TrEMBL record:
Keyword RNA-binding appears in the UniProt entry: no
Identification of the protein by name: RING-type E3 ubiquitin transferase
Pro residues bias (residue ranges): 53-64
UniProt-listed Enzyme Commission number(s): 2.3.2.27
EC main group: transferase
Cytoplasm keyword on record: yes
UniProt similarity note: Belongs to the ubiquitin conjugation factor E4 family.
Region Disordered: start-end pairs: 1-103
Entry's localization field: Cytoplasm; Nucleus
Regions of compositional bias (Basic and acidic residues) in chain numbering: 25-36
High-level lineage: Eukaryota, Sar, Stramenopiles, Oomycota, Saprolegniomycetes
Pathway as given in its UniProt record: Protein modification; protein ubiquitination
GO annotations of cellular component type: cytoplasm; nucleus; ubiquitin ligase complex
Length: 959
């Protein structure tokens, strides 16, 4: 400007252009001149910077290589007038005065909080002396720089002032023309550049607090401008000194915030203690630069010793996730104190909802942190996935029934982690089709210890495949796409988190049931019951969260889909399940990925579905269960793909809980899931394969003794409490209670089995009339009839039979209905008459009971009476035939059942048995009963010669 005439307002509006970027050397020289002028004891009035004597050496000038990086926003560089001064500026009366104030000047004055007129200085505007009476694009950078040199009590630091200026740009830029608005907006860029200078060169500007303290205060008081300011600041820091510069500023703040969370209250109820620092961490890591810094702070990844407890207490993410209802907080226990004495459940529900609301707040904040870290660049994403993998590996103890609490993270922390992972899986969970990107070869190729090598697999590899000794897996978890990584991390997390807690919850319910029945016998039991009831409600708060259950079901259904792919494709590729019609599958397990899959993957799916169906069935009503039904049908019909009959039995239990309408079971408290029933009814696969698969399953579980249950009892052995006689009495009572539970469980099973048999045979009879099933069915029916109506039927009188689920009339009715379903078949009539348990008097007595009790209508009573008479006639005829045969040659007798063979077959071992006998045996055990070598039905060779001899001998005996 140097004395040149100032342009008019019109010229200003026309000629104002965006600020040009000066060179680094120009800015460096300019700053040195300013510092020299400020340090001079006296200044010549109206002295020009160019003619000023050479200043003494500046003690703290920034090096040239640093000045370049921290250059403030550019200003238009040209021939500048006299150097602006502070309060000791030269006499301004000689300066050309102007009263003109254009909109740009007014806006910049409000934004910067400065005035160029000394008489206007006050609390709002700080006086800055320059050789101009307006603020414009020419002197904007100078004015801002001079303002930063003022020690203003209004702001504790230059950084605080710069952020305030940054914010005011948003409100003061309205009403300006485009050119002026560009100048105003350039203030934000200059604020960022000067903020970088403040943080990296703290001695440059006066401040009452350290720059890091100022930055700490800034990030803890967020507003609408904080996010954009921090993002621009991180970019400026990175441009100056790379990640190291960002870490120099952000690292100490993030470590301090994590320390505050760690040292504060561990109670989930203390929201005011933990929410603020965690939210501040979340606001910082949304910015990529700070996300990288967070994943590099000391203690982000776990260092030895490696265990779940240290992961929770010694890593940043573990500390953020550890808040739950597990903490030993008396306030949480007080929420459920004297729970059995409360007048209504409303208070209890309010307490549960209070806990859930605080857990939900934590889940929302921490989930956002994980999302930010995964989106914060390659380094941040890699480190976060490494921590997740580490969390699964060090918590392997969590899958045990009674884990060591010193080695495993708390159940609450693991559930919190599951909530986060399930939400991360949300974008590819059904109905999304992105799950097709899941790479199922992970099971065979991944070298990650995510799933321990000693985990039981779905099916054992054959001896031939073991001899091949495939190359060990070599692919790291990081080599798979993110969807695959996220799916398998969540798959493992569900096993050690919610599923493990479900097992603990079910054991707690059994213990509560036992104690409730014995509370009156021991006053001390009530206090124990109160404690356990409170524990149950605390677990309810975290485990029965509707959102968690909903996400668990979604993930379980996706897992079912992936499991189906493993059974249908050699590489587990996505396949169409809707048109599947190839059951049972004949592909050998060794040709698939199934031998590499842990057994708990399928068991976890079933555990989740069973738990939700029993305790929160409404959460299932919005889902489609086609993939789940397909998985169940594949494993039920193709047992070569799954070694455990227990898992197949659990599948049938799931189908029962989800699909059986409420009127089909007097014990079921809720109706069936409509969508599950619809899928089952409409499925052609289910119509063709479900019934025979379930029948085969019943044979398998009968062989393995599946229904023997382990009972867990709590015993007190303190001799100070009980005398020996009382101990013996309690032991007997405990044994009796155990027997009562066993009887109740067995009767419930019997009720459902008999009902299912009656229901199935009402429409389907042919499969039950095969040689291998008919005799077994008849034996079961005769056995129940003899127990209900036989000589010892009176011994079955029970006090309060409904307590034990004993319903003899219902049993009798359904057994009779089942018999009537087959009454017209001659083979069935003969099988009843020749069965060893047949007793004509029992059938006659049974007909009388039916007529007296009217549990069936008169037509069925008449039909049963007619059937009983027909069978009795056959029994007499068969008895005469046996007497006529006399002593049967040993070579004609079946060696297993010692009865006359009708269709002899030769086994590979050379033994000869009746076909019906050996096929019954093979249903339970696919081995030769004599040599224990493997045996299948197609290996049986008909012995036509022996059959002809038997027939000839029988004919001769009848003559």
């Amino acid at each position: 400007m140097n004395g040149d005439a100032k342009p008019t307002n019109e010229e200003e509006k026309t000629d104002t252009v965006p600020v040009n970027q000066p060179t680094a050397e120009e800015l460096r020289q300019k700053r040195l001149e300013r510092l020299a002028a400020l340090e001079a004891s006296t200044a010549a009035s109206n002295a020009d910077v160019a003619s000023a004597p050479t200043p003494p050496p500046v003690q703290r000038p920034p090096p040239a290589n640093q000045v370049k990086a921290i250059t403030p926003a550019p200003i238009e560089h040209g021939n500048h007038g006299p150097s602006p001064q502070l309060s000791n500026a030269p006499d301004l009366t000689k300066r050309k005065s102007s009263t003109r104030r254009d909109p740009l000047h007014n806006a910049l004055q409000q934004i910067l909080g400065v005035t160029l007129t000394e008489s206007h200085a006050g609390p709002t505007f700080v006086y800055v002396a320059t050789d101009s009476d307006t603020i414009n694009s020419d002197n904007l950078s100078e004015v801002l720089y001079l303002r930063l040199l003022v020690d203003d009590p209004t702001y504790s630091s230059a950084l605080e002032y710069l952020f305030a200026v940054y914010q005011r740009v948003r409100t003061e830029s309205s009403g300006l023309n485009d050119a002026d608005r560009l100048v105003v907006q350039s203030v934000q860029e200059q604020c960022i550049n000067y903020s970088v200078t403040c943080l990296l060169e703290p001695e440059m500007f006066p401040s009452k607090v350290t720059p890091l303290e100022a930055f700490d205060a800034l990030v803890r008081s967020p507003n609408a401008s904080t996010s954009s300011y921090l993002e621009a600041l991180a970019a400026g820091l990175e441009a100056q000194g790379g990640n190291a510069a960002v870490g120099r500023v952000g690292g100490p703040i993030l470590q301090k915030l994590v320390s505050e969370v760690f040292l504060g209250s561990q109670s989930i109820l203390a929201v005011e203690s933990w929410s603020s620092p965690i939210q501040t961490i979340g606001s910082l890591v949304r910015i990529k630069g700070f996300a990288t810094v967070f994943t590099n702070i000391p203690g982000f990844l776990l260092t030895p010793p490696l265990n779940g407890r240290r992961l929770q207490d010694a890593t940043a993410l573990g500390i953020l996730l550890r808040f739950s209802t597990d903490a030993p907080d008396p306030a949480i226990k007080d929420l459920f104190a004297n729970i059995t004495k409360r007048s209504s459940r409303v208070d209890v529900n309010k307490s549960v909802e209070s806990l859930r609301s605080k857990l939900s707040l934590l889940h929302n904040i921490v989930t956002d942190i994980f999302r930010s870290l995964l989106k914060g660049g390659a380094h941040s994403k890699t480190r976060t996935i490494q921590w997740l993998e580490q969390a699964m590996v060090v918590n392997v103890e969590g899958s045990k029934e009674n884990p060591n609490p010193a080695l495993v993270s708390t159940a609450g922390m693991l559930i919190n982690l599951n909530v986060v992972l399930l939400r991360l899986c949300g974008p590819f969970l059904p109905p999304s089709t992105k799950h097709a990107l899941i790479d199922a070869t992970f099971w065979k190729c991944c070298s990650s210890p995510l799933f321990p090598q000693d985990t039981t697999k779905l099916v054992a590899p054959s001896s031939s495949s073991e001899q091949q000794q495939p190359a060990p897996p070599s692919a790291a978890l990081a080599s798979f796409n993110f969807i695959t990584q996220c799916f398998f991390l969540t798959l493992r997390a569900v096993h050690i988190g919610p599923v493990a807690t479900i097992g603990k919850y079910m054991r707690l319910l059994r213990q509560l049931s036992y104690m409730q029945n014995h509370m009156d016998d021991d006053p001390r039991g009530r206090a124990q019951f109160e404690m356990l009831a409170a524990t149950k409600m605390i677990i309810d708060a975290k485990l029965l969260q509707p959102e968690l259950l909903h996400d668990l079901v979604r993930f379980a259904l996706l897992s079912a889909n992936v499991t189906c792919r493993l059974c249908l494709s050699p590489n587990g590729n996505a396949v169409a399940l809707a048109g599947l019609d190839l059951l049972p599958l004949v592909t050998p397990a060794d040709a698939l990925l199934v031998p590499s899959v842990p057994e708990h993957v399928v068991e976890d799916i079933l555990s989740i579905m069973l738990f939700v169906a029993r305790f929160a069935p409404d959460e299932l009503k919005s889902f489609e269960f086609g993939d789940f039904l397909t998985m169940a049908l594949i494993f039920l019909s193709s047992p070569q793909l799954i070694r455990s009959p227990h898992l197949r039995a659990k599948m049938s239990e799931c189908l029962f809980e989800m699909c059986l309408p409420s009127h089909e079971s007097e014990d079921r408290p809720t109706a069936a899931i409509p969508s599950a029933v619809a899928v089952l009814v409409q499925s052609k696969l289910a119509q063709q394969h479900l019934a025979p698969s379930l029948l085969a399953l019943y044979g398998d579980v009968e062989q393995t003794g599946f229904y023997e249950k382990l009972e867990h009892r709590w015993e007190s052995q303190s001799p100070q409490w009980l005398s020996l006689d009382e101990a013996v009495r309690e032991q007997k009572q405990s044994l009796l209670a155990e027997k009562e539970r066993t009887v109740t469980s067995s009767l419930q099973l019997a009720n459902e089995t008999i009902h299912m048999m009656s229901y199935l045979t009402s429409e389907i009879q042919a499969p039950f009339l095969t040689a291998e099933l008919e005799d077994r069915l008849v034996g079961m029916l005769n056995s129940v009839l003899v127990k209900l109506a036989g000589p010892r039927g009176l011994d079955l009188k029970v006090t309060n039979p409904e307590v034990y689920k004993f319903r003899p009339k219902v049993m009798l009715r359904e057994i009779v209905e089942t018999i009537l379903h087959f009454s017209q078949y001659e083979s069935f009539q003969l099988a009843v008459a020749t069965n060893g348990l047949y007793d004509a008097s029992v059938y006659r007595k049974c007909a009388g009971i039916l007529q007296r009790t009217q549990v069936v209508d008169a037509a069925k009573v008449a039909a049963f009476d007619s059937f009983a008479q027909t069978v009795e006639d056959l029994f007499k005829s068969n008895t005469q035939d046996e007497a006529m045969l006399g002593d049967i040659p040993d070579e004609f007798m079946d060696p297993l059942l010692w009865q006359l063979m009708k269709e002899p077959v030769t086994l590979p071992s050379g033994y000869v048995v009746d076909r019906a006998t050996i096929t019954q045996h093979l249903m339970n055990d696919a081995s030769d009963p004599f040599t224990r070598s493997p045996l299948t039905v197609d290996q049986l060779v008909p012995n036509a010669a022996l059959k002809a001899q038997i027939q000839a001998w029988v004919a001769a005996q009848h003559k």
